[in-house]
């Protein structure tokens, strides 16, 4: 019996995390964010788990991602919001697939109305400087929205959104105040949106004032913490992604011998190596070598030498490790698995990036 | 739609030109075109068919499932498909039936191959570990592997096609030592009565620089994608062309005042009133967070650094007072022709190698193939006829 090489996503953990987050932000609602292939977990499977847990809204970056969810069987009873659009997007696909666009400009709003999507959200920039409309553009944008609504167009302005910079609590509250100005501007044009949303994972936990009507939550739903100083367990969350690989081979090496390309690691004593078949092409940084550990059985062992395109080496010493044994790269620390945050810290980044960059070549299964 | 959010343009003409050039360099030594990891992120099927159209006889794809994908789109058995990393649970029957070349590293693995043989003999390459310690038999276990191969070949169960090793490219001396070990192993096989028809040892770097390591066949991947591996040598220096160009469309521009914080944590603040352009490519698409402060992108032939944190789906550039508009093309990396960085330069700037960059361009980035106007297998495939 040989171990599975790939990602195992714990559906029960996704469902439990959704419940935990929903309870925490209540009475605000939740938009479950499944962009970037569900933060690497598999968008369709993650989306289905959240829907089964009660999610009424899903969020993705672009319309391609939203269409893929519909094609994977997420029916139109579940709303899908998409907010990053190609320059000449005409929103006809959005209308056809029942996708709700968030629009950031007069031209996007007009195109969306022409496409007769039933609803749009308006996306404003309150400080992050990303894709929302900047405050100097609001007057024209809101006036256009007012004309569209009064003109008896089929499209209604259902929501108002912005995105926080998570720079500091004070900055986040400044952004919330800016969002209030946008709401007032819309009201002056006769529009009172049903859904105002600002906070994502971090602020929905740390700055409750920013929760508004709904929180757009991604990372926390996958059981990961957006904070450097609080773990998943601290937040009552369960990491849903477990990455495992079968040992392909064990090989003895003598003291002084080098390992993998460039021999960036040399054995200090006679030892044994296990080779596993995941490498940088699968999304595991070349730089992870000599900086992280994997779990095999009840022990952890260091990854040594440079991570190659499709393989990495583990120093197993004299441990009883056999071909086909399971190496756990990361999983839920509550079960004794290494934490993805250890991998992120090893290369100076955040858990978001590590999970989102696990490649499409890696097999994913849901339990 | 004319302006997609993001795309990777794959220039098949460039790939074929690189292939021709490298074959000329290696002549009369055979070339195995390496296409593991979905052809280094370029897309296995189109790259393989372009190579087949150009007359390639050997392709290396790492795994049996990848080789079977190529057989299923009509890559005929005239083209040898070499695989060398096998899941311990893999059943070799389909590989043997489809005449896929199987690299084996040890006695249990070879025994699994032999046990899977039904009618036709399995095509086997014997792997030798000369120091990289990734695959292949160690000097201690090599004689047993050879003996089993010899018996199985005599029994008509397998055909020993080749012996191979991978070099660590740590230093010239290390590689020299490794090849000496390999040569001794081949000699040992000969002593045991096993003739090794083909030897392959060198990959991209050693294949170029160490002529004496070319043996019967050289395995090359990165050079063919226009990503040379030697320090300080650009693709252009060698006459190679980068095959992948990563582009995006400006998704939005905005005029912002001085001291505007940009992206998460406000790690960048504008120093004057300026224009910000939103580039809809983020770390999930293969632009690492580490790229902030290290990578510049080209818009209309002018370079701009990334402003603020790279997010999951997007980043911003500060374009000053330049007339940059929504829909303008952004070139992240490419050939360098339009003043963009090359992927080799990305690798250097990010403390890695170009191969890691191209392999990790994400699934949300559609690959668009150019230069397939010529008739042939790849044109049929891209028209959906294969």
List the helices and strands and how they pair.
The complex is a heterodimer of chains A (367) and B (386).
Chain A: E1 6-9, H1 11-25, E2 29-33, H2 35-39, H3 43-52, E3 57-60, H4 63-71, E4 79-82, H5 92-96, E5 99-103, H6 106-115, E6 119-123, H7 135-150, E7 156-161, H8 169-188, E8 195-197, H9 201-206, E9 214-217, E10 241-253, E11 258-259, E12 265-266, E13 271-276, E14 293-296, E15 299-304, E16 312-315, E17 326-330, H10 340-346, H11 351-356, E18 364-366
Chain B: E1 6-11, H1 12-26, E2 30-34, H2 36-40, H3 44-53, E3 58-62, H4 64-72, E4 80-83, H5 93-97, E5 101-104, H6 107-116, E6 122-127, H7 142-154, E7 158-164, H8 172-191, E8 198-200, H9 204-209, E9 217-220, H10 235-238, E10 244-249, E11 252-256, E12 261-262, E13 268-269, E14 274-279, E15 296-299, E16 302-307, E17 315-320, E18 329-334, E19 341-342, H11 343-349, H12 354-359, E20 367-370, H13 377-382
Helix pairs in contact in B: 1-3, 6-7
Brief overview, please?
The complex is a heterodimer of chains A (367) and B (386). Chain A has 367 residues and is an alpha/beta fold.
Fold-level CATH name of the largest domain in chain B: TIM Barrel
Percent helix of chain B: 25-40%
- Given the structure, what is the number of helices of chain A? 11
Helix vs. strand class of chain A: alpha/beta
Which sheet architecture does the biggest sheet of chain A show?
Answer: 8 strands, parallel
CATH architecture assignment of the largest domain in chain B: Alpha-Beta Barrel
CATH topology of the largest domain in chain A: TIM Barrel
Q: Please list the strands of the largest sheet of chain A in the order they lie side by side.
A: 8-7-6-5-4-3-2-9
CATH superfamily of the largest domain in chain B: Alanine racemase
